[in-house]
Amino acid sequence: LRIDCISTISETFAPDLAGKTVIVIDVLRATSTMCTALANGADSIIPVETVAQAKLAAKGEDVLAGERQCKKIPGFTFGNSPLEFTEEAITGKRIVMTTTNGTRGIQKAAKAASVIAGSLLNAGACARAALQLKRDVLLICSGTKDVFALEDGLCAGMIVKELRSIAKEAVAADDLAVALEGAFHFYSEHLEEALLDCQSGVRLSSLGLRGDISYCAQRNTHQTVPIIEDGVLRPFEFRQGLF
Amino acid sequence: LRIDCISTISETFAPDLAGKTVIVIDVLRATSTMCTALANGADSIIPVETVAQAKLAAKGEDVLAGERQCKKIPGFTFGNSPLEFTEEAITGKRIVMTTTNGTRGIQKAAKAASVIAGSLLNAGACARAALQLKRDVLLICSGTKDVFALEDGLCAGMIVKELRSIAKEAVAADDLAVALEGAFHFYSEHLEEALLDCQSGVRLSSLGLRGDISYCAQRNTHQTVPIIEDGVLRPFEFRQGLF
Q1: Which of A74, B2, B10, B47 stands the most exposed, by the fewest C-beta atoms within 10 Å?
Q2: Number of inter-chain CB pairs under 8 A, A vs B
Q3: Residue of B nearest to A197 (CA)
Q4: Contacts of residue B194 in chain A, CB cutoff 8 Å?
């Protein structure tokens, strides 16, 4: 098993994607929210790039979700806070979602063999899904405004650790994956503090969204892995008895 | 004090450099070799980009040093192994040097207020020099073929740690610097193994250059900090009694 890692979406190029299982990581908050929404019973999520595309894609009972500059888009039912996506609010609903970075990452990865949405909430489940998919793995840290984001890097490091702990074959990781694995181990005991102190954390806290950070800093609380098929995110179906 | 970090030379853009002290890091092996050569009494080092430029720049007693694909350039006196640059071989000599990445990094950083060459050998001394220069710091991990290299990232993390330990003011580090600081701490007890296992390490070992890796994995063995002035690297002059 080979694991490569890319430090921001903007460094993602099509040749890196071919034949891979891509795990797009946007811990604060898009991929944490996608995981939560599907775990809480949403039927599916349609990630789109622009507000206009979101409005066009939403039909009938569909709900609109998304943010710009960390704030809910005017007229949308939901923003991008995972705490909004409760069972009561979204069971059975189809969600059309647009965020600054997370949905962009998923669209940019579209040429990969499989694209899943990773977060700290489901890092272990992502590793199990990736092994079941039996392909090399590319971790894409979304970053913020084309700059590396600590929370995404630490999540990438956690997924490398989880993959190593369950893979039956040898694992070859590129240098960035190895560095981030070390960083995850080092900050592991103080993960919530690390997320509060990093650049996205400081920004979200200043907007009164500290609760989102604490929620997104939880590890392996969810077994749901959003996977995209024909442009739609649904829960990955695990084969029984594999692990 | 603000510390930013860039993961490869190719991501270095002029606006990032303005007014900064840039520390260019190419642990395997250019900046380790530059530090060693000046510590062992070389008069100065002229870093140039191409083999042709090196031949043009070398006058009289000057010695030519450099590599392509990790191998000594035909007709040059030295390759890029720090072990070649002994006192006997280079005391008083002016060295004209071209390497694939390290000299390129130094040239690309030329618009910064100051440019110094950092390695594990002189990480602590680089931190002291940077504080004496009283400017914000930009760490450039050279990388290999435009890809992040673990050895450069761990050295960047060590320099962040050294800066934090001696700075009297608050230190604000960007997310990549924080991640690499954590990675350095995690691999700190096994630094030589980490360098042997990373991508440059595997390549150098396969060329019989394992001794270079062990040498370059040493920490704070040198107090010499190469700094560029008018295109020439010479030892930074520390003011007395500052630390």
Answers
A1: A74
A2: 69
A3: B175
A4: 178
